[in-house]
Write a sequence for this structure.
């Protein structure tokens, strides 16, 4: 798959097993060896998989229950914040920089532990790794969803060894947070999207 150009519309798809459960249309900011960056705009329509009756899935679905049967895609609208999503190929986490919409007041960095991105026809795909780290503007940080990771072990979604590897990935990021190294160095706090960019649409909605 070829690299994408800044301003190009793509999708980042989150999988549950082999089933797409979240499709986020984003705009390419950078697609380089040293950085992959996407912009998720306030007002973006995205797709999420829900039960036929519209109920959201449980936080952690047991491995044996992952099936397209009894589910459908629902259209949601991203509201309340802008996100700049930063990662590198081969890196098992992404850093979400969040600003309040429409004021662009910086809210936080959010370390999303996930499988390394894989290129697809429509953009990238990954799988979420349950555990995350929230980082305040003063770079104080805290783990998020430790209980969800434990629940995933009990549901057969990840082994104890796999969960330990997920936590170690987060622990590798913490020194960069505390030292204020990129992207936690405020160098992108004033970043703004190109005003000519439009909000992308998921290809299934076109």
């Amino acid at each position: 798959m070829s690299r994408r150009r800044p301003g190009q519309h793509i999708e980042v798809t989150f999988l549950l097993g082999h089933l797409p459960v979240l499709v986020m249309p984003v705009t390419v900011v950078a697609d380089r060896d040293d950085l992959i960056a996407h912009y998720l705009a306030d007002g973006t329509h995205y797709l999420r998989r829900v039960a036929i009756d519209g109920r959201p899935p449980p936080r952690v679905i047991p491995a044996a229950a992952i099936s397209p049967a009894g589910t459908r895609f629902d259209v949601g609208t991203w509201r309340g914040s802008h996100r700049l999503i930063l990662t590198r190929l081969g890196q098992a986490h992404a850093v979400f920089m969040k600003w309040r919409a429409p004021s662009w007041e910086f809210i936080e960095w959010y370390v999303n532990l996930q499988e390394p991105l894989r290129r697809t026809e429509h953009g990238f795909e990954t799988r979420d790794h349950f555990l995350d780290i929230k980082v305040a503007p003063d770079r104080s940080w805290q783990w998020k969803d430790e209980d969800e990771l434990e629940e995933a072990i009990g549901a057969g979604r990840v082994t104890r060894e796999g969960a330990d590897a997920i936590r170690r990935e987060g622990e590798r990021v913490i020194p960069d947070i505390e030292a204020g190294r990129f992207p936690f160095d405020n160098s992108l706090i004033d970043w703004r999207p190109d005003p000519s960019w439009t909000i992308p649409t998921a290809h299934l909605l076109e």
